[in-house]
């Protein structure tokens, strides 16, 4: 595949992705395909490759009905094939031995580098909790965007949802305080096209080497 072809394919996915709010309720997405979408999305970068994102997939109709009032009665909750709840694990450092150990086995990292990184990240999580929380949200935002792009590349539509009662969501689904609720992503097939939107001109929002206002 040529660079021009790759660029054209990427540009098509990015330009065709829109926030869809009306879905065909007859469309289902298999567990296998949802898993593949998430696996592609988790190729996103994260601080020190800590991969703090966690996912709760809600595709049971009864559970979607439970979620509906929590999500301010946004109808995509029950119409979409599934809702992907993106969570951030405030104890993500619990998996660093697994992550860095696999990197050593793959030949990507030395044992010495692994031990130093583990020591650094354990200190970071123990001593900078507010900064950790901010970094978790950044990393979770990166993986969320990749979920939506991966879905679009496969012909599915999505919408990111932040307007829901996060405490009520966590209570209803038994999610502990260990996890931050970042967003909900509805995924399925559009029953109605998304309404068009505009973007600010790039020259109005880009500065070179210094902010001039």
What proportion strand?
5-15%
Radius of gyration: 19 Å
CATH superfamily: NADH Oxidase
User: Which structural category fits the helices and strands?
Assistant: alpha+beta
Widest sheet: strand ordering: 1-2-4-3
Protein name: Nitroreductase family protein
Family: Belongs to the nitroreductase family.
GO molecular function: oxidoreductase activity
Keywords: Oxidoreductase
Summarize this structure as a short list of keywords or feature phrases.
oxidoreductase activity, NADH Oxidase, Nitroreductase-like, alpha+beta, Nitroreductase family protein, Nitroreductase
Provide structural commentary:
Keywords: Oxidoreductase. Pfam families: Nitroreductase. GO terms for molecular function: oxidoreductase activity. Belongs to the nitroreductase family. The chain has 213 residues and is of the alpha+beta class. The chain has a single domain (16-205), classed as NADH Oxidase (3-Layer(aba) Sandwich), CATH 3.40.109. It has nine helices and four strands; from the N terminus they run ααβααβαααβαβα. A four-stranded antiparallel β-sheet has the order 1-2-4-3, sandwiched between helices. Helix 2 (31-41) packs across helix 7. The longest helix has 25 residues, at 129-153. The model has no long low-confidence stretch (mean pLDDT 96).
């Amino acid at each position: 595949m040529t660079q021009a072809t790759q660029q054209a394919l990427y540009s098509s996915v990015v330009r065709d992705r829109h926030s869809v709010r009306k879905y065909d309720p007859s469309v289902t997405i298999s567990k296998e395909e949802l898993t593949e979408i998430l696996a592609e999305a988790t190729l996103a970068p994260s601080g020190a490759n800590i991969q703090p994102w966690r996912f709760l997939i809600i595709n049971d109709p009864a559970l979607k009905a439970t979620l509906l009032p929590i999500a301010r009665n946004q109808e995509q909750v029950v119409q979409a094939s599934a809702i992907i709840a993106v969570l951030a694990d405030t104890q993500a450092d619990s998996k660093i031995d697994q992550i860095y150990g696999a990197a050593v086995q793959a030949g990507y990292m030395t044992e010495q580098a692994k031990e130093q990184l583990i020591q650094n990240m354990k200190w970071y999580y123990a001593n900078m909790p507010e900064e950790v929380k901010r970094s978790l949200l950044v990393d979770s935002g990166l993986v969320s965007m990749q979920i939506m792009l991966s879905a679009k590349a496969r012909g599915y539509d999505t919408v990111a949802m932040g307007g829901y009662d996060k405490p009520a969501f966590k209570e209803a689904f038994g999610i502990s305080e260990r996890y931050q609720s970042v967003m909900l992503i509805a995924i399925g097939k559009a029953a109605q096209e998304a309404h068009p939107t505009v973007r600010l001109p790039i020259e109005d929002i880009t500065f070179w080497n210094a902010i001039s206002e």
